[in-house]
Amino acid sequence: xxxxxxxxxxxxxxxxxxxxxxxxxxxxxxxxxxxxxxxxxxxxxxxxxxxxxxxxxxxxxxxxxxxxxxxxxxxxxxxxxxxxxxxxxxxxxxxxxxxxxxxxxxxxxxxx
Length: 112
Hints:
112 residues; alpha+beta; three-stranded antiparallel beta sheet; 3 helices
């Protein structure tokens, strides 16, 4: 049984989120939450929240035990980009791209 949770429109670059999700891919749920609690990256908080949401979905909707789940898939996809800018030298316009990310977590039961 697979359970998913999606966190959309997170205001951080997907490239920075991918650095964090690579740490927890394939780990047990509790082990990944413990690892993220002590990770100093800003994306760790959002990723931990999404993993906890998927675990709560598994427990409430399907009655699965959190101890028997692991992170089967986790991805950070590109969300919409806010296009802003500021004045540059000689009257030019310098674009500032404020990126966002969609985080998808899929938890699965461990094989016996």
